């Protein structure tokens, strides 16, 4: 912004340069007090103190310069898209194409599905991928993983982390050392953990992913629906605020239950009270076809986007192997 300084009177330019305030953006964001405390040497006087009129002239010139600088909508959106709408890759090309790059770092992403369908396997892969550098689809951050149902599968995570570290030997990865695990079996202790303990972890460590596995297990047995709705709102509001403040993704697992109308389709638990709190809902199901991988017959899984504000209702098929979640071979996808 050399042209911006050149248009100013010399005494005003000397004030800006003495503070190393060289752009109109810096001029507008620098407090007036900082300018008023400035003293510059000139030819006519040994020391000249900056006056309120000098500050007004400088800030008016900066505001006018920015107002006259042409900007496009694209140039305004790109920084926000890069910083505020980052995504955590699934580590599977098919799932990344389906979701537009992975899980977004805003709002709550819900992953629902029947028992044993592979929800936790997908979360473990997300917990590893978020630790990768930006150029590999991660955020270079750690994970806060809260279990409410089963014991955390540390052995399975070790198996998947070894495979991922072998996939990126050029990176100095410590995947197991950046996963912070908490077990909470009761709703009161879960709320206390999220509201009081989790903020301390977010301040002390760089966390890019918060996982609750699962919300369905801990809320579905409530009989007081008004109290359940209040607690769910409190939990969701805290998680959404963390996503906005720390630019981290939030993923909550939900269970499914059978519909009462005799339909063969399953519906996510917790009803509209919970579905209105989430931003994106994805569902994992089994597909009636199999594929042979290393002499092992694996069932094909499908991830479907049920609703999302920025991606269409698409789906992608994948496999769960010993190394993790992988894309289905092209010849199988065509069947």
Automatic annotation (TrEMBL):
RecA family profile domain spans which residues? 84-256
- Domain of life, per UniProt, equals Eukaryota
Entry GO CC: Rad51C-XRCC3 complex; replication fork
Q: Which UniProt keywords apply?
A: ATP-binding, DNA damage, DNA repair, Nucleotide-binding, Nucleus
Recorded GO MF terms = ATP binding; ATP-dependent DNA damage sensor activity; four-way junction DNA binding
CDD domains reported in the protein's UniProt record: XRCC3
Q: Where in the cell is it found?
A: Nucleus
Keyword DNA damage included in the entry's annotation: yes
Q: PANTHER family attached here?
A: DNA REPAIR PROTEIN XRCC3
Name under which the protein is recorded: Blast:DNA repair protein XRCC3
């Amino acid at each position: 912004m050399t042209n911006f300084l050149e248009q100013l009177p010399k005494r005003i330019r000397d004030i800006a340069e003495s503070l190393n305030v060289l752009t109109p953006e810096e001029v507008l964001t620098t407090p007036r007090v900082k300018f008023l405390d400035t003293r510059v040497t000139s030819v006519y006087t040994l020391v000249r103190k900056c006056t309120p009129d000098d500050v007004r002239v400088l800030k008016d010139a900066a505001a006018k310069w920015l107002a006259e600088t042409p900007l496009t909508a694209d140039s305004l959106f790109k920084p926000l898209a890069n910083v505020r709408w980052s995504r955590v890759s699934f580590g599977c090309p098919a799932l990344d194409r389906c979701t537009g790059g992975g899980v977004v770092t805003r709002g709550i992403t819900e992953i629902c599905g029947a028992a044993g369908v592979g929800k936790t396997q997908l979360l473990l892969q997300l917990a590893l991928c978020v630790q990768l550098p930006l150029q590999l689809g991660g955020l270079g951050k750690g994970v806060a993983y809260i279990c409410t149902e089963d014991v955390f599968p540390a052995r399975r995570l070790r198996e998947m982390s070894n495979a991922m570290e072998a996939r990126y030997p050029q990176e100095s990865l410590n995947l197991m050392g950046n996963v912070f695990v908490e077990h909470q079996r009761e709703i009161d202790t879960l709320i206390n953990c999220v509201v009081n303990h989790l903020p301390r972890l977010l301040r002390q460590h760089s966390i890019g992913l918060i996982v609750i596995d699962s919300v369905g297990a801990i809320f579905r047995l409530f009989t007081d629906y008004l109290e359940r709705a209040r607690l769910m709102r409190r939990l969701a509001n805290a998680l959404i605020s963390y996503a906005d403040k720390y630019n981290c993704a939030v993923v909550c697992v939900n269970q499914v239950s059978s519909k009462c109308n005799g339909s063969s389709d399953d519906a996510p638990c917790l009803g509209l009270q919970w579905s209105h709190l989430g931003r994106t809902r994805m569902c994992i199901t089994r597909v009636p076809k199999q594929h042979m991988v290393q002499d092992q017959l694996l069932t094909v899984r499908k991830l479907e986007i049920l609703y999302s504000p920025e991606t269409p209702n698409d789906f992608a098929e994948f496999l769960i192997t010993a190394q993790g979640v992988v894309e289905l071979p092209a010849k199988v996808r065509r069947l």
